[in-house]
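Chapter summary example.
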Amino acid sequence: MLAAQRRTSTCRRRRVRVRRPRPSGCAIRFAVLRILLVVNSFASSVTARNTVVVHRRLARGHDVEVVETNRRGHATRFALDAARQGFDVVIGYGGDGTLNEVATGIAGTDTALGVLPGGSTNVFARTLGLPNDPVEAADQLARGIDAADLRPIGLGKVNGRFFCFHTGIGFDAAVVRAVEARASLKRWLGHPLFISAGLTTWLRGYDRRHPHFALDCAEGHIDDGYFSIVLNTNPYTYLGNRPLDLSPAAVLDRGLVVVTFRTLRVLPILRGLGAALKGGGVATSEHLVEWRDVVRLSVYDETPFPYQLDGDYLGNTERLEFEHVPDAVRLVFPAA
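The structure predicted for these 336 residues follows.
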């Protein structure tokens, strides 16, 4: 399929293979790997120039092929085809949504996942310690590839789709929906656009008087959920350079963490999130519940409610079925 799409989409796709000449009379320091770099050229921080620089850095000693996405779901198709063809690593270079699609395509295969920041927030990349600058991040990622630092990590899964760092249900998803309605401004406005969308949604875009869904799992039951975050990693997001740490228990080798707001009144939310802004996780109360090490979770209601997955709004639904999948994918850990 990769070859076929190359012939039909030459303006969006290029194939470049660079192999470093093998030195004579000395040992090879590391294996030459087949790498697919999946680029979302529409992402906020991706430019033609830094894509060239990133490619050149990754291609020092490895065979690298570059493909560009042009619609939703494209990255998953590229990643799935690459895994079937035996690529060693597929790297998602774009926003968190691009990374999610790549992870979904290679989960359960022997192909490893690489991460490069190209969006406005880059939650998962920054969680791994990568800088927001893609050129600097490419150097750290390349050194991780050279060192063969590939380790299995767990992923979340909801309604058959994997997620890397979180799924938002309710108010959070309504904010993402408002941002995506003005997606053309996202590259230029970034965080101010999210703030504006949050305020607009709070004032007139989401019902704050009635619960929106119920939640069930082995840890308990909640029948008055307004807003939930299902975490696979921590932090939940970044406010500029400040991480919003909802739960220190949300790590890649443990089960999911579920944080649920049972009200959208201002004071309980500020009390709950105040500790998170200081880095200690949310302050739980009767209005804010945290479940840790969740393996399975059901979220449901007769009236459809919105949800988003790794920053991508996926619409309204009446039911979500979550599970934690240990060792779902091998991840390239960047060198410090």
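To summarize the output: The chain has two domains: 2-148, 163-328.
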